Amino acid sequence: MKKTIYYINKMDCPSEEALIRMKLGGLSAIKKLEFDIEHRKLVIVHAGNDTEIEKLLGELNLGSSREKTVLIDDTMITEGTEKGQAKLLWTVLIINFGFFVIEMTTGFLSRSMGLVADSLDMLADALVYGLSLWAVGAAVNRKKEVATMSGYFQMLLALLGLMEVVRRFIGFEAAPDFKTMIIVSVLALIANAVCLYLLQKSKSNEAHMKASMIFTSNDVIINSGVILAGILVFLTHSKYPDLIIGALVFVAVVRGAFRILKLGK
Predict the structure, then answer these.
(1) What pLDDT digit, counting tens, does each position of 189-220 carry?
(2) DSSP string spanning 190-230?
(3) CATH architecture of 2-76
(4) Contact 167, 252 (CB under 8 A)
(5) Which of the chain's ends, N or C, has fewer CB atoms near its CB within 10 Å?
(6) Handedness of CA 155, 59, 36, 203 (dihedral sign)
(7) Is 114:246 a contact under the CB 8 Å cutoff?
(8) How far is it, in rounded angstroms, from Cα 52 to Cα 58?
(9) Overall pTM surpassing 0.70 (yes/no)
(10) Taking a C-beta distance cutoff of 8 angstroms, is the pair 95, 195 a contact?
């Protein structure tokens, strides 16, 4: 048996971890995956050579590079229970989908495109976690079909959101409710931090998750951006801070949709 360590340059949040799990899920040679998001490291315990693994990782375009491969004794493999991993994925999926519904609803009620855009980012994460769960025991072709449909659906919603941002830019729209923007975004930020904490805690007995790692998460940055937009709306009594952050988040969601579509190739 072999243990290969990879450095994944663009693995900065649990979404990338879920994408990698899906991509490598069909390889029977892989016995165990260990993720260290804080240090962007991936450890793979596997049989055979690294050729197919490196090919699949390269297709994700996450900047993967192999650091070293060492031989290990088969008795050193301690498999994590699939049941426990599935339970964890269900937990973070439900949290993300729940906040998608909350932010989408409050976004429309408060006229905030920032909240609407952030809700789609939450939906994107929920889709990735859902695809990871689907990958367990699913046929490869079916998994690719679901990934493709999810990616196009996410991209369509994001493009519709960008069109609405443009319409509001040139139209006469009232400023959004800054109180709702700030309160809901703070709750979403807490939810993202909890998800990241749970995922990291499950991967390490040393509980090496640190606050600095949480605040490098893309989702937390987006939540903070919506909070900042809400403050600027309050200070300026203008709709534009909300529309600007909304446009930026919609672009990030489109980028995430392209990542999901890669899984369908």
Answers:
(1) 888 888 777 766 665 433 333 333 333 356 77
(2) HHHHHHHHHHHHHH-TT----HHHHTTSHHHHHHHHHHHHH
(3) 2-Layer Sandwich (3.30)
(4) no
(5) C
(6) positive
(7) yes
(8) 10
(9) no
(10) yes
List Cβ neighbours of 188 (8 Å cut-off, separation of 6 or more).
99, 102, 103, 118, 122, 223, 226
What confidence tens digit (pLDDT) does each residue in 52-110 have? 899 889 988 889 999 998 888 765 555 444 555 667 778 888 988 999 999 999 999 99
CA dihedral of 119, 123, 125, 129, whole degrees rounded to 10: 150
> Domain map of the chain by residue range?
2-76, 82-262
Q: Radius of gyration (Cα) for the chain, nearest Å?
A: 20
Distance (Å, whole) CA 13 – CA 89: 14
> What's the rounded mean pLDDT across residues 8-18?
76
Angle formed at CA 198 by CA 180 and CA 73, multiple of 5 degrees: 160
Distance CA 51, CA 9 (A): 19
